[in-house]
Amino acid sequence: MQLAGRQVFRGQRGFTLVDILVATGLVAVLLTAVTTFNRAQLFTFHNQAVQSDVQATARGIVDLMTREIRRAGANPTCVPGLNAITDAKQYRLRIQSDLDGDGAVTGVNEDITYEYKFSQNKFVRMANGITETLIDNVSLSGSRIRYFNGADAEITAGETGLSGSQRDNVRRIRVELDASREAADPENGMPLAASIANDINLRNRYFVNAVACP
Predict the structure, then answer these.
(1) pLDDT in tens, 167-211
(2) Is residue 3 a part of any domain in this protein?
(3) Domain span at residue 100?
(4) pTM, whole model, 2 decimals?
(5) Which one of 10, 39, 150, 204 has the fewest CB atoms closer than 10 angstroms to its CB?
(6) What domain count does the chain have?
(7) Which uninterrupted H or E stretch holds 116?
């Protein structure tokens, strides 16, 4: 059929309102899916980075403590009154060593205190007049320090810690560090956690009793 100089075909028509609404809905669904996927990926990558950081930091702390606790009680000049362990609680440990052999424990890293500060969500090291935060913004629930004698029996530290005679009997110390942070995704209730533990023999007590100072 010819009408006013132009040809019109039966059944030819444009997009209806319904077509536009359906297309808009499909695009919205697609965009939502893409956004949700990207969001999940970003949170996953961030969580992995935080998880790795917590694990690496916890491992580094326990490695540091292992080195320093192992040499506690070093006393090459047999100076009297030098105690390998001067404070022993489940959350706090103070150790001493005469590393430079000058008969005192005033040198670098010769008097060290480690402490879990549960209420502040951090773990600190105190030495050389400096308090250093080794890890913070983490839950330390489950972390503790345990003490064992030469027969491998645990010496339980109460609220006031081990007595002097109990500290003298310690041959092995177990450090347990449980650290966790909340996941980056607020919809993910699983914390990002690391649990590191190590048993440390005090070599100046455990291995050299035969040549100990009188």
Answers:
(1) 999 999 999 999 998 876 666 666 788 999 999 999 988 665 445
(2) no
(3) 52-211
(4) 0.76
(5) 10
(6) 1
(7) strand 111-117
